[in-house]
Amino acid sequence: MIDNGSASPAFGVYCHIPFCTHRCDYCAFATWTDRSHLIGDYMASCRRQAQELAAGMPPVTSVFFGGGTPNLVQPSLLGDVLAELPLAQGAEITVECNPDLVTPEQMQAYRAFGVNRISLGVQSAVPHVLDALGRRHDPPMVAAGVDAVREAGIGQLNLDLIYGSLAESLPDWKRTLVQAIDLEPDHLSVYGLTPEPGTPLGDDPARHPDEDEMADKYLLADELLARAGYEIYEISNWARPGAQCRHNLLYWRQGSYAGIGCAAHSHRDGLRFWSVRTPERFIAAISAGTSPMAGSEELGPDERRVEALQLALRTSAGVPADAVPGDVEHLLEPAAGGRLKLTARGRLLANEVAVRLGLPSEIQRG
Questions:
Q1: Which DSSP symbol is given to 8?
Q2: What is the pLDDT along the chain (366 residues), one digit of tens a residue?
Q3: Do 225 and 183 contact (CB within 8 A), yes or no?
Q4: Are 123 and 145 in contact (CB under 8 A)?
Q5: DSSP H or E segment with residue 95
Q6: Peptide bond between residue 79 and the one before it cis (omega within 30 degrees of 0)
Q7: Facing residues of 121 across strands?
Q8: Distance between the two ends of the chain, CA-based, in angstroms?
Q9: 19: DSSP letter
């Protein structure tokens, strides 16, 4: 088992920041580029929701500010939300950041109110690939951002990478991996480009990634990151020993968490619920003193058991050996405690393995 870094039972908080300066072609998240005038009211509503939730909340072992673009918002407004939460000693506190908006002063402000982990959206180190993805930063901004994080004394750094654009050759992807490794982050999240319905990428089949190239790029990442000393602990995530993202581990272990802000999801003991999607509706609900909840679902014991296997299959913890039928054993290898985990090539076929385990055919991208 991976130590969650705290004596308190794991409990997380996710705060959604739905504002961006530009929307990438592949993005299907609840984000908007034309509503910056709502930032003040929205963040005040998030703070108020945090106050209300804190009364019945156990010690919080991880907080994740995601989006959207959290570092588009004044750091003090994130700090105001964080100040309302009953944080456990040593809580992991992450802010997602776009490189083009990072400044030394911003990172110092984050550090002052307790941020100890930054997730930097690098995606690629190759300018023409960044253009194809619709990203606005350039590679020198990444190096400057990394320097700012380290100079501020923020403890851990994650780099987000995306592979699979048709504009990206295998040498392009290798260049991205090598440059990312040279920056010596503590953690790397490496995601395959996914054509989501309703996005410009999803609506243009001519731009959809090639599956064989995607497989080659994934295996190259696995090889180079392992050689550089990073350990894979989930299909898309590698870390130095002890630097796994505790907040994401909470999700993969069916832990409990509270969502703050529009479109944020929460989970308690099999009950999942989520908030209204737009910032306007969220602000209106909080201002009126009503619940922003938009819907919920409750998983029964069998559904939770299936989901537990589904999530465990993604991780280095693996699944019980007796849950694996013989026709997929060649795609798994021994893990700790007599369990089996996916091999590198098995991870490429995780959906097929899931079907043979009696799981849903789609495994959620994490």
A1: S
A2: 233 334 568 999 999 999 999 998 899 999 999 999 999 999 999 999 999 999 999 999 999 999 999 999 999 999 999 999 999 999 999 999 999 999 999 999 999 999 999 999 999 999 999 999 989 899 999 999 999 999 999 999 999 999 999 999 999 999 999 999 999 999 999 999 999 999 999 999 999 999 999 999 999 999 999 999 999 999 999 999 999 999 999 999 999 999 999 999 999 988 999 999 999 999 999 999 999 999 999 999 888 888 888 889 999 999 999 888 888 999 999 999 999 999 999 999 998 887 777 554 343 333
A3: no
A4: no
A5: strand 87-97
A6: no
A7: 160
A8: 19
A9: B
Q: Could you give all domains of the chain from N- to C-terminal order, each with its CATH number?
A: 11-251 (3.20.20.70), 300-361 (no CATH)
- For residues 48 and 282, give the distance between their C-alpha atoms in angstroms, rounded to a whole number: 11
Q: Tokens representing 192? A: 């395959």
Residue among 61, 24, 20, 66 at smallest CA distance from 265: 66
Q: What pTM did the predictor assign?
A: 0.93
